Amino acid sequence: MGRVELANPLVLASGVHGSSLGKVLEALKSGAGGAVTKSIGLQPREGYKEPTLAEVEGGIINAAGLPNPGAEAFSAELAPLRGKKLSIFVSIFGGDEREFAAVVKELDPNEFVAYELNLSCPHVAGVGTEVGHDPELVSKVVSAVKSKTEKPVFVKLSPNTDKLVEIAQAAVDSGADGLTAVNTVRAMTIDISSGKPALSNGYGGLSGSAITPIALRCVYELREWFDVPIMGCGGVSTWEHAVRFFLAGADAVQLGTATMRSFAMFNDINLGIVDYLEKKGFKSLRSIVGAAHHKRGLADAAREGTQ
Ligand SMILES: Cc1cc2nc3c(=O)[nH]c(=O)nc-3n(C[C@H](O)[C@H](O)[C@H](O)COP(=O)(O)O)c2cc1C
Fold first, then answer.
1. Which end of the chain is more exposed for a tag (fewer CB within 10 A), N or C?
2. 196 CB contacts (<8 Å, ≥6 apart)?
3. pLDDT of 305
4. What class has domain 10-264?
């Protein structure tokens, strides 16, 4: 996938298991081809008080408030992994280009495969979508990060905008090596016994199968415009979901909420994908990426001789 090598196209999504590196390593051992860390900022953050998670039909709503140990402490956690060649993406956030650059400066001496810039958290003021919905600021952030590292840089986009392509364009024009689509969908639920919002923060971000069609549309739309690697993310829990994202144009998919139960699904989904490709007569995943954009779908992918 571009300059990033993955053993398989399934990647653990950022943050779902908190900020411990242990879960990232466990996912890799359990069959994930790559794994993204919790988003790391310059300073340590405690996050919001409980409740930060609420279950709803088809998913969960979270507003954790980006709790993380801060760049310096996280850099110390990453240091022992040098030489291990693990497919870890480090997710970072900040309020402006200077803060992003400072985080990169702290983390960059460590060994990991790429950055993922979280420009899309829907529930923390001053970072996330407030940065990620401003194409000019996106451009400044990506340029600043690129000037501080040789590592590939993925930009994680928000579905909560009608400027998806414009924002992605700003990122790609400024040197982004890839895109991740998408972060959570801004949402809320209300506790009918107290009559109050269920989360301490009021609103949060919806994840899980409820957002899959939205994420799929974002990936499809991005693939119409861009050639860079795309990681699809949103409610993937079966091989069928993963295949849909590949057909829409994703080179890899990230799994978040579904992995809260267990990491066993990585192997099952990988087997399902291999079996599907075999049954359809394709030798590689590459052949079907973006096939839904062809007039006759897979039939055209096959005709192009790319099996
Ligand atoms: C509890 C929780 C914490 C999350 N933390 C982060 C985070 O720190 N950074 C980030 O970019 N995305 C974060 N996300 C979003 C996920 O990485 C992912 O984009 C989203 O959940 C959609 O994928 P899914 O439906 O497979 O979970 C978080 C999601 C959840 C549920």
1. C
2. 190
3. 56
4. alpha beta
